[in-house]
Every structure is written in structure tokens, then in C-alpha cells.
């Protein structure tokens, strides 16, 4: 077997509205409605499906838990600009900028938390 790429991932969240607002208003993703009342966030060719804790869709993770994810997102915007934009939204940078190893390249990254406490790394490929 050879896996080619990731189609989507799922975040279990405490509050759909709060999560959608953060990822769309702060990170510029697009809210997507699909299926029977399901919600997702789209960016580039990617999608994050959202499950609200206690109302998850089946099949689901064995122990769906808000705040248990660690995501790395790559931006084309300069990281200094990203940090300024986060500050305008009142979002604290927890760490960075720091150099990290990514899947395709060395990354220059900052780390922050979403409303559920998920760790979100925002990076520039170097």
C-alpha cells in the first residue's frame, strides 16, 4: 500500500460556533456546510471536519476529546505579518518564531492555541 495524501482530518470541539469563528476570522479559513448539518473548515485544497463533543458523527475516534490536537499549518504570508495579525485579534503567540523540521522543508514557526486548547503551529517553509 502507498498512501498518497491526506484528504481531511477531524477536530472534536466544545463549541462549533466559537471554533468556526476562530479559524475563519483569525486564520482565514472558510466555513463549509456539508452532509446532513455537518460543518468543516476549508483552506487551499484541504479540509478540517468538525465534530462537536457529545454529538460526534460515526465512525469517530475512540476517545474524541476537545483540545487534544496538534496541527501544523503552512502560510505563504510572511511570519512577521502573521504575528502582527494574531496580535490584532488578541491571540497570544505561545512560542516562536522558531526553526522546525517539516514534511517537505525546514519551517520557521510560531505556536498558538485555538479556543479548545489545541496547539496550532503556523509556519513558513524556508
TrEMBL record:
<feature type="domain" description="VOC">
    <location>
        <begin position="5"/>
        <end position="125"/>
    </location>
</feature>
<dbReference type="InterPro" id="IPR029068">
    <property type="entry name" value="Glyas_Bleomycin-R_OHBP_Dase"/>
</dbReference>
<dbReference type="Pfam" id="PF00903">
    <property type="entry name" value="Glyoxalase"/>
</dbReference>
<protein>
    <submittedName>
        <fullName>VOC family protein</fullName>
    </submittedName>
</protein>
<dbReference type="InterPro" id="IPR037523">
    <property type="entry name" value="VOC_core"/>
</dbReference>
<dbReference type="InterPro" id="IPR004360">
    <property type="entry name" value="Glyas_Fos-R_dOase_dom"/>
</dbReference>
<dbReference type="InterPro" id="IPR050383">
    <property type="entry name" value="GlyoxalaseI/FosfomycinResist"/>
</dbReference>
Amino acid at each position: 500500500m502507498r498512501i498518497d495524501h491526506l484528504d481531511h482530518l477531524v477536530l472534536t470541539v466544545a463549541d462549533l460556533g466559537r471554533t468556526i469563528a476562530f479559524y475563519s476570522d483569525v486564520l482565514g479559513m472558510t466555513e463549509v456546510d456539508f452532509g446532513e448539518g455537518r460543518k468543516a473548515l476549508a483552506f487551499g485544497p484541504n479540509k478540517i471536519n468538525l465534530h462537536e463533543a457529545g454529538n460526534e458523527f460515526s465512525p469517530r475516534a475512540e476517545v474524541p476529546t476537545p483540545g487534544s490536537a496538534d496541527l501544523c499549518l503552512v502560510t505563504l504570508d510572511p511570519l512577521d505579518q502573521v504575528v502582527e495579525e494574531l496580535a490584532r485579534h488578541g491571540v497570544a503567540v505561545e512560542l516562536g518564531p522558531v526553526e522546525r523540521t517539516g514534511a517537505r522543508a525546514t519551517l520557521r514557526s510560531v505556536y498558538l492555541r485555538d479556543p479548545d486548547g489545541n496547539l496550532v503551529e503556523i509556519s513558513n517553509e524556508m
